[in-house]
Structures are given as structure tokens and as C-alpha cells.
Design a protein that fits this description.
The complex is a heterodimer of chains A (334) and B (340).
Chain A: H1 18-43, H2 58-65, E1 73-75, H3 81-86, H4 91-98, H5 132-146, E2 152-157, H6 164-175, E3 180-186, E4 189-190, E5 193-194, H7 205-208, E6 214-218, H8 222-237, E7 243-248, H9 268-277, H10 280-290, H11 296-319
Parallel strand pairs in A: 1-2, 2-3, 3-7, 6-7
Antiparallel strand pairs in A: 4-5
Helix pairs in contact in A: 1-2, 1-10, 1-11, 2-8, 4-11, 5-6
Chain B: E1 15-19, H1 20-34, E2 38-42, H2 58-62, E3 67-69, H3 74-86, E4 90-95, H4 101-112, H5 115-118, E5 128-133, H6 148-152, E6 158-160, H7 165-177, E7 182-187, E8 194-198, E9 210-213, E10 218-222, H8 225-239, E11 244-248, E12 251-253, H9 257-267, E13 270-277, H10 282-294, E14 303-307, H11 316-319, H12 326-336
Parallel strand pairs in B: 2-3, 2-4, 4-5, 5-7, 6-7, 10-11, 10-13, 13-14
Antiparallel strand pairs in B: 1-8, 6-12, 9-11
Helix pairs in contact in B: 1-7, 3-4, 8-12, 9-10
The chains are: A alpha/beta (334), B alpha/beta (340).
């Protein structure tokens, strides 16, 4: 499947310090705990609206964002908490945004589906499926016009493969060699419908038709994701043009937090298989043990740290004030 | 290149006569010289200079890196404009026919218009979308609409409708310097309209209406193409001793409500004209503003004149029936003034 110029001959972990793998483990675990708390906030009616949880897909956000610099850009999706956290957002302000509080990343005006943080290069989660495609590609165009060596990454799901604008901008990115990596997280379901019911043909050929190299990656294996992301991001940074990563993954929760009766579109057995056999956090943990990088004590220490951070962040947000009513008309125009 | 075809017939120093198309081109060229972040992208904008030749010569001065021919992908190029604007550039996206904004509507309405607010004021979208409007070019239903009401409806957007070369140049410069997404509508039939523009750099602030003709008996609020129709009607009405005041809002958002209301209070009669469909259109909003603001001063209900609520037909005999004319304005004004 790989059509990039550099074959996968390197050991994925070769250039990575042990500390960096542990950091990635911690980031994945942070996203997992964050999402579990979000689900609880919803289930206990303490969060307005709803949320689309990223649990199960953590290796992609963390693996890709670990290959990026802070000043590189990302666009995210309605299922975007993982991308935002992996790019450097703080847990407390994330919770605050989800709860509609003034201290949130968007002063409570965006909510779960619209977290943007220019300080970490996050151009925003987007509640229109495929909505980040134009913005990310425009950012890549801007990078090239400004003579910068930044890179843009556009995250989207299998559902966005149904949106025409994605193909319009990929065509231009290829035509003009923009520094962008399109990262498709194929979690198998367009909302409540299996992607094979909505998507004809070969997924990777959607990219290669434009001359955009596509790598299909096991999205549960962060080492594979990180390896591919490093190569494709470096390629883009060298000015060699866009690339496409097709990541096979799985969404543990429903389409959103309220989607709890899922038997009509997928089986419990399927869910259990992914959680038991293909969990990205467990897979990395197993490898860390095999490599002698971590042991039970290491994992316990990280777990305690993450739990404390997430619980403190949640408490901060619960206690934080709502926006002042006069905020409602602020920020409509710059 | 810039003003090579401009006719400098004027005796006043520092003022030249140019066409509206030239005024647009001058504004773009001057802003591109002033600010290296400004660039143009669209279908056939470079060597072809657009289907209307409005951009002719720009690519020779600024090159294909700043005057960029794109695929026929209105959603895609508008999306690129949004992302470019959010990350340090000041893109101008050319949508050849206003009818085609339908293809770009998600980028304009759900992305460009909302990014600043949704991000809590952190991200900005200094984007200009230039497009066209106007019927009577015999180009039928998909190349003739005036869809400014669609974008005027959406918070986060600013909408410009110039009616003279002077206004077009000054307003386009303001649009390019604005930190918000601006939709700039040019009437295709007015590209050859001539008028005076100063040699010196100038801008026209948004949200300031212009009195195109002072008068006493009836106010006509008119946008873009309808300003010329209103001016022609005013000449005819003057012969009937009906004095017309013509107010051009120039921007539908921000809207200079005060000037509209003040004029209606003065004349006590108001006609509102816009080439968009009359139904739920710009005229409806302007009429409501006047009705609310000048109700106790009005001698008659505010009268709207927009495009007929039909898809624009091809046959000239039919098409000409769909837009207001000087003659139809005269009839309405006479009725309002009790002169029938």
C-alpha cells in the first residue's frame, strides 16, 4: 500500500528516546481518562449538549502530533478532543470549554466541537464533516506563500470521504505541492453506518488518483503511526508535497455520548474484540514492557499522575464561572 | 498597465475618470503593492483577467504566485482562502458569477463567518470574496442572480454593494484592509460605467450610506445596479415636480440605519430597491428598518422594488420584465406622492 519514496525499513522506535515513548503513553492515557470523564459528565447531566468521544483512536492523534512542531498547524473534527490534547491543549481549559465556561479555549462559545487554540497551532475542531479540509489546505498554501517550513495536518474521519471539498483541495495541494498531510481516521462508521455501505472503491486510491502518496497504517499501533507521520511530515517540510495517511482504527463509544444502543449497526463482540485485542494503549504498554522501558511501577506512576491532572482539570472547570452575558455579542466581528 | 486605458479628461488636478472595472483593478493593484500578504485566486484570473477582463494586467505586474488561476472548485478555493486568511495571508477569492456562491456556501457561512466567534475571538479571517450580480445580460437563470441577501443574513460577514467607480475603489480597499470576511458584489452590467476617482489613496468606511442625490418628496434607497435606475427615474420625476432623494447604503452590513431613517423622515415617503429577489430580500430588511425608525413620519407604506420572484429567464422579452426599470420606479413614486 505504501507509495511513498521511503520504504519502511527503519525500526520505528530507533530514533526515539525512551522518555518520548513514555510521554506518548502518558498523552494517550490522558486522552482516555479525559474522555471517560466527559462521558461521566454527560451521563450525570453536568455537561450541556453532547460530545463525540475519541477513545480507541488515541494512537493516531498522539502519533501524528508527536511528529509535529508546536508551530505546525492542525485542523480537527467533531471527534476532536484527542487532537487538541495531543497538539498541546491543557486539560483544564478543555474541560472548561466543554462546560461552556469563560476559562475555556473559546470562552465557552465553541464547545466540544469547536476547540481552537492558536498558541498550539490548532486551527479548530470543526462540526461540518470535512470542514477542516479547506482550512488546513489553505494554511498549507499560506505556509508556502510565506516561505515558512511549517506543515499542516488535516485530521478527518471516513465520513469525510463523502465530501467533495476534500477532493477539490487535495487536487490543489497536489498541483501546487502544499506542505500538508491528510490523516484519515477510518473508525469504520460514518455515524451509525458502516463505511462500506457509503464508500465505493478503494480508499487509498482517492489520494493516489491525485498523485498524492498514501500510506495505510495500523491506527492502533502508535509506533506505526508515528513512523509514517515522521516520514510524511518530513517529506512535506522538505517541500515535496502532500501525503495521505489512511489509519485503520475503532471508536469505542457510539457516534456521540448519547449513542448507547448500538446493536443495530455493530455487535458487542466486535467492540469487545477491539478493546481486548487492539487497544492502542495496551499495545504500546506491552511493547514498553518487552523493551524493558517500563514496568508495572512505571505504569502506576503515570496512571496516578494522569488521574490527578484530569480530576483537577475537571474540578477547575466545574468551579469556573460562566461567561458574562455581555459576551454574547462580542467577537462576532474582529 | 494600471490606468493605461483610463481617460484623463478631467480638468481637476488629481482626479481621473475611470470605469468601474478599472477602479476595481486599481484598488487590487494598489493594495497588492502596499501589502505583500494580499493575493488573488480564482478561475481564469491571471492571463485571462477574468471573464469580464476586470483583472487584465495584474498578472503581468504581480506574477502567477499572487494572481493564481485555480481549478473550477469554488468550495475548494474559498476554503483555501479561509485557511490562508487564518494563518497570515489576506486572500481575495474571485467567484466569477454570484450564482456560484452556492457552491462555496459552507466555506462562507459555516467556516469564514464563524471562525472568529467560535474561537472566542482568537482567530481572524481577513478574506475578501469578490463576486458578481445582476441580470439583463441574457445569461439566464444560473448566471444572472443577485444573491446578496443570502450572505447579508449571516452574522460574521460584511457585505459590500458599490454603485460607482469611486465607491468601488474605496470600498474594495477597505474590504482588503478589514480583518473580517467581506463579500463584495460587483454588477456585471456596470463594469463600463465611468466616474471620477482621486489619484491619491483613499478608502471609504463601511456602514456609511451616501446620498447620491438630495431631494425632498420621496426617498429611494437603492443598492448597486439599482442606484443607476433610481437616478434615471429621478430625472424623469423632476420633470413632474417630484423631488427624489437617493440614498445608497453601500454596505448591507454594517448598515447605516440612521441615514436611511433620517431621509425617510425628511421626505415622508420611501421606496427601497435592490436587484435581488424581492421575496425575503435585502429590500425587506431595508423597508423594515425604515418602517420601524420613521413610522410616525411616513405618509405611505414603504414600497419595495426587487427582482421578480422567478428564475431569471433567457428570452430578452421575458428577462426585461423581471427587474425594476426607471419607468416602473416613476409609476411607484407617482403613486406614493398621490400623483396618479
Amino acid at each position: 500500500m505504501s507509495q511513498t519514496e521511503s520504504p519502511k525499513t527503519l525500526d520505528a522506535g530507533k530514533d526515539v528516546e525512551q522518555a518520548q515513548w513514555l510521554k506518548m503513553y502518558e498523552q494517550m492515557l490522558t486522552i482516555r481518562h479525559f474522555e471517560e470523564h466527559v462521558n461521566q459528565l454527560y451521563m450525570t447531566a453536568r455537561m450541556p449538549g453532547l460530545a463525540h468521544l475519541y477513545s480507541g483512536e488515541e494512537a493516531i492523534a498522539v502519533g501524528v502530533c508527536s511528529a509535529l512542531r508546536r508551530d505546525d498547524y492542525i485542523t480537527s473534527t467533531h471527534r476532536g478532543h484527542g487532537h487538541c490534547l495531543a497538539k498541546g491543549a491543557a486539560v483544564d481549559r478543555m474541560f472548561a470549554e466543554l462546560l461552556g465556561k469563560e476559562a475555556g479555549y473559546c470562552k465557552g462559545k465553541g464547545g466540544s466541537m469547536h476547540i481552537a487554540d492558536q498558541d498550539t497551532g490548532n486551527l479548530g475542531a470543526n462540526a461540518i464533516v470535512g470542514g477542516g479540509a479547506g482550512i488546513a489546505t489553505g494554511a498549507a498554501m499560506s505556509i508556502k506563500m510565506r516561505g515558512s517550513d511549517q506543515v499542516a495536518v488535516c485530521f478527518f474521519g471516513d465520513g469525510a470521504l463523502g465530501q467533495g471539498v476534500l477532493y477539490e483541495v487535495m487536487n490543489m495541494a497536489a498541483l501546487w505541492k502544499f506542505p500538508i498531510v491528510y490523516v484519515c481516521e477510518n473508525n469504520l462508521y460514518n455515524e451509525y453506518t458502516h463505511y462500506t455501505e457509503t464508500t465505493a472503491g478503494n480508499l487509498s486510491e482517492r489520494a493516489t488518483a491525485f498523485g498524492v502518496p498514501c500510506e495505510t497504517v495500523d491506527g492502533q499501533d502508535i509506533r506505526a503511526v508515528y513512523d509514517a507521520a515522521q516520514r510524511l511530515v518530513a517529506r512535506a517540510r522538505r517541500g515535496e508535497g502532500p501525503a495521505f495517511m489512511l489509519c485503520d482504527t475503532y471508536r469505542y463509544y457510539g457516534h456521540h455520548v448519547g449513542d448507547i444502543q448500538r446493536a443495530y449497526y455493530r455487535s458487542k463482540e466486535e467492540e469487545e474484540h477491539w478493546k481486548a485485542q487492539r487497544d492502542p494503549i495496551k499495545l504500546l504498554a506491552n511493547w514498553l514492557v518487552e523493551q524493558g522501558i517500563a514496568d508495572d511501577e512505571t505504569f502506576e506512576r503515570i496512571e496516578q499522575k494522569v488521574r490527578a491532572e484530569v480530576e483537577a482539570g475537571e474540578q477547575f472547570a466545574l468551579n469556573a464561572p460562566f461567561p458574562n452575558p455581555d459576551e454574547v455579542e462580542q467577537d462576532v466581528y474582529a | 498597465m494600471l490606468s493605461s486605458s483610463a481617460v484623463d479628461q478631467n480638468t481637476n488636478a488629481g482626479v481621473r475618470e475611470v470605469t468601474l472595472g478599472q477602479a476595481i483593478r486599481e484598488a487590487l493593484a494598489e493594495e497588492m503593492r502596499r501589502d505583500p500578504r494580499v493575493f488573488i485566486m480564482g478561475e481564469d484570473v491571471a492571463e485571462a483577467g477574468t471573464a469580464f477582463k476586470v483583472l487584465s494586467g495584474l498578472v503581468e505586474e504581480f506574477g502567477t504566485s499572487r494572481v493564481i488561476d485555480t481549478p473550477i472548485s469554488e468550495a475548494g478555493i474559498t476554503g483555501l482562502g479561509v485557511g490562508g486568511a487564518m494563518t497570515g495571508m489576506r486572500p481575495i477569492v474571485d467567484i466569477m458569477f454570484g450564482d456560484f456562491i452556492g457552491l462555496a456556501m459552507d466555506q462562507i457561512v459555516n467556516q469564514a463567518a464563524k471562525v472568529h466567534y467560535m474561537s472566542g475571538g482568537k482567530l481572524k479571517v481577513p478574506l475578501v470574496v469578490r463576486t458578481t450580480m445582476g441580470a439583463t445580460r441574457r445569461t439566464a437563470a444560473q448566471h444572472s442572480q443577485s444573491l446578496q441577501a443570502w450572505v447579508s443574513h449571516v452574522p460574521g460577514l460584511k457585505v459590500v454593494l458599490p454603485s460607482t467607480p469611486y465607491d468601488a475603489k474605496g470600498l474594495l480597499k477597505t474590504a482588503i484592509r478589514d480583518d473580517n470576511p467581506v463579500i463584495f458584489f460587483e454588477d456585471k452590467m456596470m463594469y463600463q460605467l465611468k466616474g471620477l476617482v482621486p489619484d491619491a489613496d483613499y478608502t471609504i468606511p463601511f456602514g456609511v450610506a451616501d446620498i447620491k442625490r438630495p431631494g425632498l418628496d420621496v426617498t429611494i434607497v437603492a443598492t448597486s445596479s439599482m442606484v443607476q435606475i433610481a437616478l434615471a427615474a429621478a430625472e424623469l420625476l423632476e420633470k413632474l415636480n417630484i423631488s427624489v432623494e437617493i440614498v445608497d447604503p453601500r454596505t448591507t452590513f454594517p448598515l447605516d440605519k440612521d441615514t436611511l431613517i433620517a431621509s425617510a423622515k425628511k421626505t415622508s415617503r420611501a421606496i427601497v430597491m435592490d436587484e435581488g429577489y424581492e421575496r425575503y430580500g435585502v429590500t425587506a430588511e431595508l423597508a423594515a428598518v425604515i418602517a420601524e425608525g420613521a413610522f410616525y413620519y411616513l405618509d405611505a407604506p414603504v414600497k419595495r422594488l426587487g427582482a421578480m420572484d422567478v428564475p431569471v429567464p433567457f428570452s430578452p422579452v421575458l428577462e426585461d420584465l423581471t427587474v425594476p426599470t426607471a419607468a416602473s420606479v416613476v409609476e411607484v413614486a407617482k403613486t406614493l406622492c398621490g400623483r396618479v
